[in-house]
Amino acid sequence: MIHASKVSKQYKASTRPALDEINIDVDKGEFAFVIGPSGSGKSTLLRLLIREDVPTGGELEVNGEDLVHMRRGKVAAHRRKLGCVFQDFRLLTNRTVEQNVGFALEVIGRSRASIKQTVPEVLEMVGLEGKANRMPNELSGGEQQRVAIARAFANRPILLLADEPTGNLDPDTSADIMLLLERINRTGTTVLMATHDNTIVDSMRRRVIELQLGKVVRDEARGVYGVGR
Ligand SMILES: Nc1ncnc2c1ncn2[C@@H]1O[C@H](COP(=O)(O)OP(=O)(O)OP(=O)(O)O)[C@@H](O)[C@H]1O
């Protein structure tokens, strides 16, 4: 699903590369954490996968698509295959829960009938069936993140990218969000999640890819966060 070979990213303003010849292969259906200290390159990796930015070296493919040489006109189609979830939820604050999810489907050209059918299904999946008409500010942080996950999942992405999705949530709420991401993973969606949350990483025992100063320093199948971090 993800193939990164010697991928580097050198920002113009920076002296050292944010990513330095990293090799990562993630298979379809895998669940993998990307961990590492602040500035190690986690968000940069996710940005390259979303094609918000382009590597300055190496090969990068998602689902067989070459992201290095991808034409600008194909970027939107690439992003449509992905779901993205962020620490700060990024909901449309002036739209209801239902509209937030529906709008994401509208912009990718889904018919009104299909949106009408899909939105209640995904809201039920994330446990928000009674809250379709609420505004985001009428929800708890955990509920807002559920809306963001519903929105990311509505189009059944092949790959879900999550950048610190539990960063603003308390431990119990974070655990619930992880159950939801596991559930999404069980439907066949590959999940790549950047996190600082050692409790979550230790309890899930999933693949752990550790970055330090832009290099992969550990890639373990059923890893833990690590001692003393
Ligand atoms: N737009 C940019 N221009 C210049 N340098 C950048 C840019 N974005 C990130 N960097 C640098 O690239 C390196 C990696 O940053 P990145 O945001 O990928 O790290 P991170 O592991 O996600 O950190 P955090 O956990 O704090 O989010 C850092 O040294 C950062 O300062």
Automatic annotation (TrEMBL):
Q: Name one GO cellular component term.
A: plasma membrane
Tell me which UniProt keywords the record has, alphabetically. Answer: ATP-binding, Cell cycle, Cell division, Cell membrane, Membrane, Nucleotide-binding
Domain ABC transporter: start-end pairs: 2-227
**What Gene Ontology molecular-function terms does this entry list?**
ATP binding; ATP hydrolysis activity; transmembrane transporter activity
**Localization (cell):** Cell membrane
Q: Name one GO biological process term.
A: cell division
InterPro entries per the UniProt record, alphabetical: AAA+_ATPase, ABC_transporter-like_ATP-bd, ABC_transporter-like_CS, ABC_transpr_LolD-like, Cell_div_FtsE, P-loop_NTPase
Q: Would you say which domain of life the source belongs to?
A: Bacteria
State if DNA damage is listed as a keyword: no
* Its membrane topology: Peripheral membrane protein
What SMART domains does its record include?
Answer: AAA
The keyword Membrane is annotated on this UniProt entry: yes
Q: Please give the PROSITE patterns that the UniProt record associates with this protein.
A: ABC_TRANSPORTER_1, ABC_TRANSPORTER_2
So what does this one do?
Part of the ABC transporter FtsEX involved in cellular division. Has ATPase activity.
Complexes and interactors: Homodimer. Forms a membrane-associated complex with FtsX.
Q: Which family does it belong to?
A: Belongs to the ABC transporter superfamily.
Q: NCBIfam families recorded for this chain? A: FtsE (TIGR02673)
**Name by which UniProt lists this protein:** Cell division ATP-binding protein FtsE
Lineage runs: Bacteria, Bacillati, Actinomycetota, Actinomycetes, Nakamurellales
